[in-house]
Each structure stands twice: as C-alpha cells, then as structure tokens.
TrEMBL record:
Keywords: FAD, Flavoprotein, Hydrolase, Oxidoreductase, Quinone, Transit peptide. One of its GO terms (biological process) is sulfide oxidation, using sulfide:quinone oxidoreductase. Residues 150-265 form the FAD/NAD(P)-binding domain. This is Beta-lactamase hydrolase-like protein. It comes from Flavimaricola marinus. CDD domains: PTP-bact. Its cofactor is FAD.
Length: 557
C-alpha cells in the first residue's frame, strides 16, 4: 500500500485489495471510501469484495464511484458529506489516488486556502494543476473566466518588477504590459538599515505604488493565487484569469516571522526589533538611543536571506552609536549567526573583523534563533556545530535585533515554476525558466546562486528585458547575468565596506580602487549609500534608466 496523508483525518492511496484491510485497520483507519467504479480494470476487485473484507476487519466502507477525468462539482459535495459522516481517520482510494485527492481538494476549496490545498496534495505526490481554477473558485467550475491577455505579465511590483517593466518600455514603448501586485505602498528596503541607524527617516523609504508604475503599464491590484504555465495563465484570488504571451515572476520572498516561537507576539516591544520591517526599523533606533548598559543580541538565520550583510549592518551602526555616546564599554554585543562565517566573500572579512574588535562584539557561529520570550527578556538558540549534537542554549537580552528566516512565497512553492526547494527554477545566466521558455524570473524569488539584494535586481532587470525582446524577435538570449550583487556594509556612521561580488564569490567592483577600495572602509562608499543610491533607485532603476547596469552580452569577455 502507498498511503498518503492529506489531513489527520483523511488519507488517499492507489487501489487497495481485500487482503490489505487488516493492515489498513492496523494503520489506524476506521473507514474507507472507494472512488473507483467497478469494472474499470481487469485486475480490480469489486466494491462488494472490498466492503466485505472491510467489514470483516471492523472498518466501515462507502462507495462513491467517479469516472476518471470527470469529477463534477456535485461529486465533490458528495465526497465532503461522505467523508464527514464516516468515522475517521478515513482512507479514500481509486486507481492511483488522484481522483480521491481531487475530490478532497475541491471539497476543501471553501474551507482552506488554495496554497494550503496545493501544499498538501503536492507533498502527497498529486498534481492538482488541472483543477486549480476550480479550487480558486471555491470548488465550483467557473462559468466565466473573464480572461484578459497581455503581451507581458509581471508578477510583483517590487524593485525587480517595476525595473523590468521600465526597462522593457524603454526598449519597446508600445508593449502591452500588466503588473500584478496587491500592495498600495512600494518600499526602498535597503534604506531600512539607515532608518534603524538613525540616518534616514522611515518616510524616505516609502512611496505610493501608483506613483511608480511606469506610464502605459496596466496595474492589476490583486494577489496571485496560482500559475498555469501550460495554459499561459495566472490565476488571481477570486479565480480571475490573466493570460500572457510572456511572464516575468518577481514577487520577492517571504519573511517567516512565525517560524520563531513567540516572536510575532513581542515584535516592536520588550526590546525586540528588526530592520526587516518598515514599522519596526524606527524602534531599532529608539532602542539604540535609549540603551546605556546591558546585552544586545543581533541574529542571522540560515541562508538564503535578502542582503546577507543586513543583520551585521545593524550591529555595526548600533555599536558605533554606543561608541560615540561613550557607553559601549557597558554593552555586551553578541552576534548570533546560524552560519559558520561572518561574510560569505572572504576578501571583505578582514575589514569587518576590525570593527568586530572595535565594538568588542562576540561572534557566535552556528547559533540559530528558535524562540523568544519578550517579557522575560530571554531567547533560545539551537547550536548546530559540525559533527556535534544540536544543543539548545538560553540567552538573556536587553535588546535583540532579529533577522527572520526567509523562504519563497507560499504560492510560488506550490507552483509548477518552483524547484525542489521552492524557488523559481531559472538558468542562472539568461534568467529564463528551465522548463517554460516564455517565463523569466528575477529578484529574490529565483534560484540562481547569487546574493538576494536590490543591487542584484538592478542588474538582472535589463538582462531579462534584453532577452525577452530578443525572444519576441525570434532570436536566442543575448544577455547574461554574472551573479552581481552588492552589500554596502555600514561599519560606522560615515564609513562603508562596499562588498561587490558575483557568482562563486568573484570580486566585481564598480569603481577603480583609487576611488573606492571595497575591501576597506571608506567615506566615498558611505556617500554612495547615503546620497547617491536612493536617487539611482527612484529616478534611475525604476524609470528604465540603466545607469551602471548595461547588460553583459552572451559571449562577451
């Protein structure tokens, strides 16, 4: 038997035999549902034989035969009633289990989210792509799809989405482009480090979405529920369908605050903060300004995360503020990193270590935050050193800056576009999907082995635009992405270590060493971060002006 659990009360399986009933009983089931009509296959026992064996084993049995490929809305309602009336747990079966999984999916459509249903069925090995529109429509067959079709559809209006739309419009102004995003506000997230350090006000990092969508681009203010790449379709919440000739997927990633026990309840109070949220970054600066003594913990979760330097940027700017106020000697700084190194590109580590020593910070590697008790001012870390059993340690704090665990968005994880880890599966050079050749992806959501930074998206957007235009002309990809990412490490107020690197940790500096030597702290790099990068973002990248972002041609040296 190959039994797959969908919920604690319902599992599905391929055909079971009368001789399996005792094992079904011993597995904890109290009832079975047969969804396979008698006579469908020559090797198939009749339901009469199945039900007799079930009764002999002390199981109840129900017969709800469904013709393969013809699950009706009424069938789903009937399945919901039968499975609810039988004593649980219940095992439903057909030839492969797919019909039973489909019935459950449609029956649950008005009780669970589409993402939850797809996650459960995908984990069980069943593809519900063929009925995703019906699930999105509350389990009912849509009577009107209301299709809208665009030459290019972009999912996500963050840095990558708007930059890609602007770059495409700059190349071909008449393109019919739609951007799908439910958000009202667009954030310049790299600025939140500066908010937490008291340099920027939060309002400098936010603008209305409507003011940034490029002229002539349609904004569909909705959330995406699912993808049907085989039909060139995106399904929105409420089962509206948007069709495309070419698709760009760039919704960013998910900050998984709930993965740390107790964190959500205490964020923004009890000394618990994070620069990874617009509303919390000001609280970071409030805590830093008010702290005169005690322990400050800065955390970093397992990779991948957006801007891997951000957790330590918060530590450096806080340490600098305490140093300037003369209270650093009374503050115990702890940097608890789930990884085993301070920074992934070794060339920048010596300069960073100078500041670790300056602020007398303790580096605790392989320490992953798993729980927080804000009122008690305690945090717990799982310490996973190589070749050593995992040990849970408790640490007290007066202030803790948390970098949350990060994953692909749920609706991406369960989509046909995702790889095994849940990220959009692209060619790392062309950023084209490995399976669907009219789909591209950029930004934090895709699986190329680069740093997830806004600087990376700035370089990726023109690459995607160039390759889409080439594809529209019937040609092969012409531009390639070299893995460029940048992390301006704010080691003190007024100085930055400007880390710029590509695939494999190769150094990719934008400036000659005589202007900015990225391996050393410099005031020039600080000026770039504070004064130049925000207007480059708002007035350049999001407007289709590819300053210092000219796409690298394939084959170029």
């Amino acid at each position: 038997m190959d039994i797959k659990k969908l919920t604690p009360n319902l599992s599905v399986s391929p055909q079971i035999m009368p001789t399996d009933m005792q094992a079904v009983k011993e597995a904890g089931f109290r009832a079975i549902i047969c969804n396979r009509p008698d006579g469908e296959g020559a090797d198939q026992p009749t339901f009469e034989k199945i039900s007799k064996a079930a009764r002999d084993a002390g199981l109840e049995a129900a017969y709800l035969p469904i013709v393969a490929g013809k699950v009706t809305d009424e069938d789903a309602l009937a399945f919901d009633k039968v499975s609810a009336d039988l004593p649980g747990p219940v095992l439903a079966y057909c030839r492969t289990g797919t019909r039973s999984a489909t019935l459950w999916s449609l029956a649950q459509a008005d009780k669970r989210t589409l993402v939850d249903i797809l996650a459960a069925t995908t984990a069980a090995g069943y593809d519900m792509g063929g009925v995703v529109r019906r699930i999105a429509n509350g389990g009912k067959t849509p009577t009107e799809t209301g299709d809208a079709t665009y030459e290019i559809v972009i999912v996500g209006a963050g840095a990558g989405g708007i930059a890609a739309a602007a770059s495409l419009k700059a190349r071909k102004p008449g393109l019919e482009i739609a951007v799908i995003d439910p958000a009202d506000v667009h954030y310049y997230q790299p600025g939140w480090t500066m908010v937490g350090g008291g340099i920027f006000g939060p309002e400098q990092t936010a603008r209305t979405m409507g003011s940034l969508i490029p002229k002539g681009v349609h904004w569909i203010k909705a959330a995406v529920a699912a993808f049907e790449p085989q039909n060139n379709a995106v399904i929105l919440d409420g089962c509206r369908v948007v069709k495309y000739k070419r698709l760009i997927v760039t919704p960013g990633l998910k900050l998984d605050w709930h993965k740390i026990d107790g964190l959500v309840e205490t964020l923004g109070q009890n000394g618990v903060t994070s620069n990874y949220r617009y509303d919390l970054a000001p609280y970071t600066w409030e805590l830093v300004r008010g702290m005169k003594a005690g322990r400050a913990i800065f955390t970093q979760p397992p990779m991948p995360i957006k801007c891997a330097g951000a957790p330590q940027k918060a530590m450096y700017l806080s340490g600098d503020a305490w140093h300037r106020r003369g209270v650093l000697k009374d503050i115990d700084i702890q940097f608890n990193n789930a990884g085993g190194v301070l920074f992934g590109v070794k060339d920048y580590v010596p300069a960073l270590m100078d500041y670790v020593k300056k602020y007398d910070a303790t580096l605790n590697f392989f320490h992953n935050l798993v729980a927080v008790d804000g009122p008690a001012k305690k945090a717990w870390f799982d310490v996973s050193k190589p070749d050593t059993p995992v040990e849970r340690v408790e640490m007290e704090f007066d202030m803790i800056h948390v970098c949350p665990p990060q994953t692909a968005p749920d609706f991406i994880k369960v989509s046909p576009l995702a790889d095994a880890a849940g990220w959009v599966d692209v060619d790392q050079a062309t950023l084209r999907h490995k399976t669907y050749d009219n789909v591209w992806s950029l930004g934090d959501v895709m699986n190329a082995p680069n740093a997830k930074t806004a600087a990376a998206a700035r370089i990726q957007a023109p690459v995607v635009a160039e390759n889409i235009i080439a594809d529209m002309r019937g040609g092969s990809p012409v531009a390639q992405y070299n893995g460029y990412g940048s992390c301006p490490l704010t080691v003190e107020r007024g100085k930055i270590v400007l880390a710029e690197f590509g695939y494999g940790g190769s150094m990719l500096p934008s400036f000659p060493k005589t202007i900015i030597d990225g391996t050393k702290p410099s005031r020039a790099a600080w000026f770039l971060k504070e004064k130049m990068l925000p207007p480059i973002y708002w007035k350049g990248m999001l407007k289709g002006h590819e300053w210092m972002a000219k796409p690298e041609k394939i084959g170029a040296k």
